[in-house]
Amino acid sequence: MTLSSKPLAVIVIVILFGGILLSSSLGVWSTETSKQAAAFTTGEFAGQANPADIRGSYSLADIEKNFGVSPEILVKAFGIQTENPAAFTIKELETVYADSPVEIGTSSVRLFVAFYRGLPFDLSSQIFLPKSAIDMLSDKPLSAEQKAYLETHVAGGISADASPSAVTTPLVQATKTPEPSSDRLIKGLTTFRDLLSWGLTSDAIEKVLGLPLPADLSVKVKDFATANNLSFETLKLGLQSAVDALK
Amino acid sequence: MINLFGRRLRIFRPRSIWVRRVGQFFFFALIALISINYTLSETGRGIPLLSNASLHALCPFGGVVTIYQYATSGTFVQKIHESAFILMIIGFFLAIVFGPVFCGWVCPLGTVQEWVSSLGRKIFKKRFNHFVPVKVDRVLRFTRYLVLAWVIYMTAATGTLIFSAYDPYFALFNFWTSEVAIGGVVILTLTLVLSLFVQRPWCKYACPYGAVLGISNLFRIFSIRRNVATCTQCSACTTMCPMNIAVDEKTVVRDHQCISCLECTSEAVCPVAKTVAFSTRGAK
C-alpha cells in the first residue's frame, strides 16, 4: 500500500484530534491538576492533606479548600495586595517578592500552612517567611525546634500591615552547615547507608518505605521520597520511630 | 532525467509537500495561540473557545519522562498531566505506523527551524546543510540518545521536570513569561542560529523526543522505499533530504533520523514517478 501526502495529513490529524476527543469522552483527558493536595499516608496525620504538596498553581482558594487556611489569613501573612484574594496564585508570590534577597514563594506558603495547621514539615531546607507571617504564627503551639527555625528564617523588616516592597535583608541568614548523620537523627542528608549503619535492617526500612531499598545505598532518603512521590516528612517519622526503638 | 534533442537533461521538480507546510503552520499557530491564551488566562482574560492549557500539558515528551514515576508510584511528575501521557501514546501509535510524522508534520520547533533554514539555504545555496564533516556528523547524530538518557534519569531521580530549564520548545512559546529559563532561551537561540547553516540542528543532534520516535524507523509499517529498477540515480532525493539521509543508496530507509516528511518522494523531488514512495512492504 502506498500513501501520498494528502491522505497522510488527514490521517495524522484524525488520529491526533480523534485520540484527544476519545480520551475526553472517556474522561481521561486533563490538562491541569485536580488541585487536590496529596495526603499523609501514615502516622498520626494519615489522611490529612500534606502542605509539602502545595503547588505554585494553587490559588489561595485552593489552599483554603485543602487546608482550611482562609485567603484573608494568607493575604495578611504575606502582605499580598490584591482585589481578589481567592484567585491569587501562589506562584505570583515570587513576583510580589521579586526584590527580596531571599526567596519567598511556594515553599514559604508550604511552611506557613504547615505551622499554622500544626502539620509535620521537613525543615532541612532553607525556607524564609516574611515577618508578618511569623508574627501570625506566634500564638501557635510550635515545638522548640520550629520556633528556633523561624527565628533564623525571617525575611526581615516587614510587619503584617506593611507592603512587600519593605522586605530588605533577612535578619539572620541561616548559614549553619547541616550536622553529620551520626546523631541518629533523620535529616535531609541522611542516606540509606546511614540507616543501615545505625542498626536498622533492610526489612525494617522497606516496611516503612513500602518499596524495596534502592540499589545505591548512598541515595538520600529525601531524594528517594521525592523520586517516588512519597512524603519525606512521613517517611522521616516512620524511620525515626524505628531508629529510636533500637536505642 | 529526460532526453531533449538528443541531450540528457536533469529536470528537478522543486516541488515540496505543500500540505505538510500548511499542517506545520497550523500546529505552530495553534500552539502559539494556546500559549498566549494560557498567559492571558492568568490575568483573568482569554481567547474564547480556545484551550488555555499549559505547554507542559500539550507536550508528548512530558509523557515519556513521567513513565518511570507513573510505573513506580502511579503519579505524574510535577506539571505533567494526563493529556501529555495521552499525546505520548498517540505519538507512539503514529510512529509505529508512519514513523516520526510528529517530528516532520506537527512539531512547531521543527517548523521554526525549517523556516530559518529556508533563509540559510538562500544565503549559502549548495553549501547549506553540508557544513558539518560527515564523520563528525555521523557521531553527533547519536548525542540525542545521551540527552534522552540524561533527561529520563534526572527526572526519575529528582521527581521534577528537569528538562524544562533547557527546553528550547518551552522557551519558544514562553519567552514572554517569567516561567522561561535562561538555559532554554540560550539553547533556543543557538538552535535558531545553527539553523542558518544546518537543517533541523536540534532534531539531528539533541532532541530527546526525536530520539525516542526515531527508533520507530527500525520497524515502522510505512517506510520510504526506492524502486531500484526505475531509479535514475540522480540523487535528488538525497540532496533534498533535510536529515542528510542517503536515500539513493537504500531500497528502504531505516535510518533512525528519518522524519517522514516525504520531501524525497516522487510526489515531491524525485523526477521519476512511483520510484521513491511512502509505502508498506510489497506495495506496487
Can you walk through the features of this model?
Chain A has a two-stranded parallel sheet with strand order 2-3. The radius of gyration of chain A is 23 Å and the shape is flat. Chain A is mainly alpha-helical and 247 residues long. Chain A contains eleven helices and three strands, in the order E-H-H-H-H-H-E-H-H-E-H-H-H-H. Chain B is mostly helical and 284 residues long. Chain B has helices at residues 18-41, 60-65, 67-73, 82-98, 101-106, 108-124, 134-140, 143-158, 168-172, 182-194, 201-205, 208-214, 236-240, and strands at residues 2-4, 7-9, 223-226, 276-279. The longest helix of chain B is centred in the N-terminal third of the chain and has 24 residues, at 18-41. The interface between A and B is large, with 35 and 47 residues.
Could you list some keywords that capture this structure?
heterodimer, A: 247 residues, mainly alpha, 2 domains, two-stranded parallel sheet, flat, B: 284 residues, two-stranded antiparallel sheet, 13 helices, 4 strands
- Mean pLDDT of chain A, as a whole number? 82
Query: Beta-strand level of the residues of chain B, as a percent range?
Result: under 5%
Which H/E pattern describes the elements of chain A?
A: EHHHHHEHHEHHHH
Task: Count up the helices of chain A.
Answer: 11
* End-to-end CA span of chain B: 22 Å
Largest interface, chains and sizes: A-B, 35 and 47 residues
Report the structural category of chain B: mainly alpha
Distance between the termini of chain A: 74 Å
pLDDT < 50 runs, ≥5 residues of chain B: none
Largest sheet of chain B: 2 strands, antiparallel
Low-confidence stretches of chain A: 157-182
Which class best fits the helix and strand makeup of chain A?
Answer: mainly alpha
Task: Work out the count of structural domains of chain A.
Answer: 2
Mean pLDDT of chain B equals 91
Query: Strand tally of chain A, please?
Result: 3
Number of helices of chain B: 13
Adjacency order of strands in the biggest sheet of chain A:
2-3
Order of adjacent strands in the largest pleated sheet of chain B: 1-2
Helix-residue proportion of chain B: 40-55%
